[in-house]
Design a protein that fits this description.
The structure is a homodimer. By secondary structure, the first copy, chain A, is α/β, with parallel strands linked by helices. Helices cover about 40% and strands about 20% of the residues of chain A. Chain A has two domains: about 1-105, Ribosomal protein L30/S12 (60s Ribosomal Protein L30, Chain: A); about 110-279, SPOUT methyltransferase, trefoil knot domain (Alpha/beta knot, 3-Layer(aba) Sandwich), CATH 3.40.1280.10. The longest helix of chain A has 17 residues, at about 260-279. Chains A, B: It comes from Flavimobilis marinus.
């Protein structure tokens, strides 16, 4: 690693390559190039570990190369190309890199590939527009042991840098499917024998009651394979979208709050399923 | 309301009053004046309903006055002073007002006042620095039916506009105590017979196991009055702070995620307590 620390390969902040990487913060550049940015040590570490074939290039400052040497060791072990760059070059590529960023090929996962694995827990984000919220749901789905996340309708681009950062690496831990057709996705989940539950404050089922009854054969039964639908952060699920589900479930609100934020509600629902699946 | 729609009282964006309100986005102006900003219809509505004696003034555009007439009716019923202002004036006061904002007197709640009410569920944020996270925890605590939130150590200013917005009005639903002395707060909670649980990924107790055993007299027993300690978003609780608690509890991580974000973990813990208290 010593020679890397001495002379970074890339030192020209005006190089075309630098501008091309920086442009990946915009959706049009991402979709043109078919690649996206992963910023910061945690994201790059998980990308190199779990999605090495997608990694085109890693850029690292000499200081970050020393500090995160285990990430670079993983990169070397997985034949990932690493280029050292001056702090100025990395900063010009991204304001959120903390010395380490990667460019990855955008890989698409089809819902059928997920269904072929007999998933037991799936999170469906319907028209989720806030990048941080979408990323936080992906992270929570991973933590709760979900098998996949599906983004439907006009949800945020999953490769938005804020979304990628908010996943904290979970983007590389479980398949994330993008499919605009909400009704089609729900129908296919149901055909694959998942119970589809819509999370909504107006739900006729209380989540705690469902958890009490899990495994007792009542419907909906949280112990069964389940897909949760979560709606837009401002307006929730439309009545039409909620009506696609087998049941509408509310997270109990015990204080004076009118609602939980989307990511918090999603986390509570996914953990309830994960708890019901445990036994 | 018609006369209000015609001629706003305030139209001069350069007025001293406008600059004084705008300055409340900064901590020093807030602490000098002993007041803070509440931006947007949801926050103002809850402030007027639940904290009317603290509301110094509400500013509203003619359009927002029509759209949120029920908020202004509540204001009138609670003798809250409302001033109409041009859209330009409101926009100059705050970029996040959506036509409606309020200036409130900062009111302090002492921990002893909370303890006097025999609380059953309290959230303690230790060195929580991100304004959005702190606000989201306050909102989740409200939703889970918690009796209070305490911010200790060097936590973010609860009157930071981002924090206030993230609480979505919950700031006015339950007492929020600010007390730097983490050890002192924990000791006083324990003397008030609350079990203090530190939420930490390294915890020796699994949250789901505690929920299984709740009410069976084992320790810690989630069915008992409980205070949860949540640490900083980046580094969690220090070992010293975690050691103050009666037990350290981990939220189970079932996928490959290393952690949940702070607000998500707090929500899961608070809802587990709320579930245990239900029976």
């Amino acid at each position: 690693m010593t020679e890397r620390s001495d002379t970074p390969e890339l030192t020209n902040t005006r190089a075309e390559r630098v501008a091309a990487v920086r442009a990946l913060s915009g959706r049009s550049a991402r979709s043109r190039a078919g690649v996206f940015l992963v910023e910061g040590p945690q994201g790059v570490r998980e990308a190199v570990r779990f999605a090495a074939p997608q990694v085109r290039e890693v850029f690292v400052t000499p200081a970050a190369a020393e500090r995160y040497d285990e990430v670079l060791a993983d990169a070397a072990a997985n034949a990932v190309r690493v280029r050292t760059a001056s702090p100025e070059v990395v900063a010009a590529m991204s304001a959120d890199a903390q010395g380490l960023l990667a460019v990855l090929r955008a890989a698409e996962t089809a819902l059928d590939d997920v269904l072929a694995t007999s998933p037991r827990l799936v999170a469906v984000c319907v028209n989720v527009r806030d990048p941080g919220n979408a990323g936080t749901v992906i992270r929570a789905a991973d933590a709760a042991g979900a098998d996949a996340v599906v983004l439907t309708g006009h949800s945020v681009d999953v490769h938005n840098p804020k979304t990628v950062r908010a996943t904290a690496g979970s983007l590389f831990h479980l398949p994330v499917v993008v499919d605009e057709d909400t009704a089609g996705v729900v129908a296919r989940l149901q055909r694959a024998r998942l119970t589809v539950l819509a999370a909504d404050g107006s739900g006729s089922h209380d989540l705690d009651d469902l958890l009490d009854d899990a495994g007792q054969g009542q419907r909906p039964d949280l112990a069964q394979p389940t897909a949760w639908m979560f709606g837009n952060e401002a307006w929730g699920l439309t009545p039409e979208d909620a009506a696609l589900a087998d049941a509408v479930v509310r997270v109990p609100l015990r204080g004076k709050a009118e609602s939980l934020n989307l990511a918090a509600a999603a986390t509570v629902c996914l953990y309830a399923s994960s708890r019901a699946h445990r036994s």
